[in-house]
Structures are given as structure tokens and as C-alpha cells.
């Protein structure tokens, strides 16, 4: 465990302090801000709801909304149980480009909600892989770059988001399938 945490800190230092560029700072801050509280993904859910007739169902929107809500709740419970401090509170030279959230660091909410949304979108719209996967990865990465998460926070968040979205999607689609008449 000690080796894992040391590696985590070393990778954080590399990504947060060495692999940076002044011109990239405002881009990363913008990207992290639009994914704050899963804002970007909530917008996608609203778009899915608005275009439900064209899509043919409200189920993708309901599943996305449900997955985001479940992910927020479970992530917060885990975070307060683990209670890991954020990098600027434990690392001397962390570059902090955004306001430090008051919640604990592990797991990352941005990563959890982004990967949950990615899973749901890929489940219903496989062609979304061309933009949903890169955005989920970028949104998770920005949290390292702006200095408020360690790499394992984002990895755990991604894993948690995918698992919770898979369970939520499975529950919702199985209930919908049970209600539909069989031919």
C-alpha cells in the first residue's frame, strides 16, 4: 500500500507540476469547470429528454439522470468514509488552479460522473464512443492537472462510475423490458 501511495504521489507530481504549459492552464480550468457537478452531463440528459420522441424513448435520459444521481450519492458516501485529503493539503508544491473543494479527494466525483455518463451513453448510443470516451478521460484528467486530485482518485472514480452506471442501467432496462409485451 505504501508503494502504491508513493507511486500515486510521484505520478501526481509529474502530471501536475512537470507536464504543464501556461497556455494549457485556462483550457484545463475551463474543462474542469464545465464538468463541475456533472454540469456537462446534465445538459446531455436534458437534450436526450427534449429529443425523446426523435430518439424513440425517454429511457436513455432517465437512465442517465438516475446514474448520475446514484453516482453522486455513493461517491459522497465513499469519500467521507475514506476521508483522503486533497493534494494541496498534503503535497508541498501542488499547483492548485481552481478553488479547493471541501469534500474529500477519494474518489473523484468528476471521474465518477463522467465515466457513469459515458457508460450510459455508450449503452444506448454506441457511436457516442467517439466523443463520450475522450471527454470522460479529459474531464477526469483535468482534476489532476488543476491540482485537486491524485491519479488513484480519478481511477477509482472512473471504476466506481462505470460499475454504478452498469447496475443502474441494468435495473432500469430490465424493468422496462418486463413491462413490454412479448410478441
UniProtKB/TrEMBL annotation:
Domain Phosphatidic acid phosphatase type 2/haloperoxidase: 58-169
Source organism of this protein record: Alkalicoccus saliphilus
The protein's name in its UniProt record: UDP-diphosphatase
Stored Gene3D superfamilies: Phosphatidic acid phosphatase type 2/haloperoxidase (1.20.144.10)
Membrane-spanning intervals of the chain: 27-51, 58-82, 154-173
Keywords: Membrane, Transmembrane, Transmembrane helix
Coiled-coil portions: none
Highest taxon in the source lineage: Bacteria
Pfam families the record matches: PAP2 (PF01569)
Amino acid at each position: 500500500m505504501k508503494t502504491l501511495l508513493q507511486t500515486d504521489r510521484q505520478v501526481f507530481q509529474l502530471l501536475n507540476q512537470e507536464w504543464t504549459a501556461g497556455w494549457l492552464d485556462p483550457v484545463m480550468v475551463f474543462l474542469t469547470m464545465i464538468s463541475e457537478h456533472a454540469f456537462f452531463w446534465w445538459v446531455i440528459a436534458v437534450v436526450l429528454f427534449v429529443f425523446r420522441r426523435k430518439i424513440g424513448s425517454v429511457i436513455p435520459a432517465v437512465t442517465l439522470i438516475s446514474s448520475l444521481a446514484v453516482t453522486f450519492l455513493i461517491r459522497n458516501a465513499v469519500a467521507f468514509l475514506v476521508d483522503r485529503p486533497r493534494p494541496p493539503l498534503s503535497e508541498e508544491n501542488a499547483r492548485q488552479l481552481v478553488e479547493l473543494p471541501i469534500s474529500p479527494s477519494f474518489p473523484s466525483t468528476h471521474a465518477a460522473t463522467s465515466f457513469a455518463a459515458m457508460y450510459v451513453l455508450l449503452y444506448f448510443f454506441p457511436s457516442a464512443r467517439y466523443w463520450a470516451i475522450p471527454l470522460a478521460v479529459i474531464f477526469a484528467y483535468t482534476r489532476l492537472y488543476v491540482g485537486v486530485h491524485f491519479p488513484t482518485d480519478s481511477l477509482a472514480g472512473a471504476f466506481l462510475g462505470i460499475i454504478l452506471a452498469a447496475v443502474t442501467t441494468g435495473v432500469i432496462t430490465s424493468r422496462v423490458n418486463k413491462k413490454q409485451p412479448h410478441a
